[in-house]
């Protein structure tokens, strides 16, 4: 089959991690006889430098015209000194989500057995953790009333949700739970917020159509504690945009290996995949960044194409690299392997080649 994949490397180490992911996709192409047509677009700080916008029209066109989008990393700390700048790198991503109607951000949390010691939590606590977070991505406090809010002497951000916005992501979460451990935890602040009360009502009604799935509710402050105290008690987590932004980052620390974690943002038609980690500007072009999160984002991309065997081949190759200690220095300070070694190992493993590594990058 033919698939069009938009590659948006973005800023910092984005280019390097996308290159490794592309290697793996090309290995999949060869082994499974597919055709992947790559189109490259600029986004983020790099786009601002040339086009004065974080999401140039051409990039949007490429994305709209593709079957899936793979993003590297976006951002540059030079913009952090001016938090109220009109144009910021991450606006590219926010605009893209809106333009493409990406309403659900999906973040799996998986602990690699050989990396259990990396977690800041005790092995006993993280044992068995397998969480899938569904964060609403297209609405809530991120998108309402933005134009008026900063012009006056006061400022506001409104959290507004419609039944439709809640129900479409809730269905995704329940369907996912059916194929997992049959549990959905809705996280909200329904003791205070009206929008949360609507979430509870809509999600409770939807739960009726999934009799095998147990639904529980948690207030977000309590959930922030529980996620650290007992992360392994969660299966599917469902929450609104802002709470999801915070809880997803909190959860990513539980593994102690944030550079292995991917995420997907999906809508009716389009889907975008990216690593959870940021641009690590200081690591750029040093061959030090860990490509695993982006490679696992491509596994999610393949699953989105319903290429399950292909996705499994990528996952198995990643498992193998981690189990064998073919990892970058963030996971093993004594490691002699760089970004390219790890990418090559994984791509070669997909190709079925033997597991030797060329230490000279030849
Ligand atoms: C994320 C990021 C974005 C968000 C930023 C870059 C706007 O933190 O994808 O979680 O807050 O949604
Ligand atoms: Mn975030």
Automatic annotation (TrEMBL):
<keyword id="KW-0520">NAD</keyword>
<keyword id="KW-0464">Manganese</keyword>
<dbReference type="GO" id="GO:0003862">
    <property type="term" value="F:3-isopropylmalate dehydrogenase activity"/>
</dbReference>
<comment type="subunit">
    <text>Homodimer.</text>
</comment>
<dbReference type="InterPro" id="IPR024084">
    <property type="entry name" value="IsoPropMal-DH-like_dom"/>
</dbReference>
<keyword id="KW-0028">Amino-acid biosynthesis</keyword>
<dbReference type="GO" id="GO:0046872">
    <property type="term" value="F:metal ion binding"/>
</dbReference>
<keyword id="KW-0432">Leucine biosynthesis</keyword>
<keyword id="KW-0100">Branched-chain amino acid biosynthesis</keyword>
<protein>
    <recommendedName>
        <fullName>3-isopropylmalate dehydrogenase</fullName>
        <ecNumber>1.1.1.85</ecNumber>
    </recommendedName>
</protein>
<feature type="domain" description="Isopropylmalate dehydrogenase-like">
    <location>
        <begin position="4"/>
        <end position="346"/>
    </location>
</feature>
<keyword id="KW-0460">Magnesium</keyword>
<keyword id="KW-0479">Metal-binding</keyword>
<keyword id="KW-0560">Oxidoreductase</keyword>
<comment type="similarity">
    <text>Belongs to the isocitrate and isopropylmalate dehydrogenases family. LeuB type 1 subfamily.</text>
</comment>
<dbReference type="InterPro" id="IPR004429">
    <property type="entry name" value="Isopropylmalate_DH"/>
</dbReference>
<dbReference type="GO" id="GO:0009098">
    <property type="term" value="P:L-leucine biosynthetic process"/>
</dbReference>
<dbReference type="GO" id="GO:0005829">
    <property type="term" value="C:cytosol"/>
</dbReference>
<dbReference type="Pfam" id="PF00180">
    <property type="entry name" value="Iso_dh"/>
</dbReference>
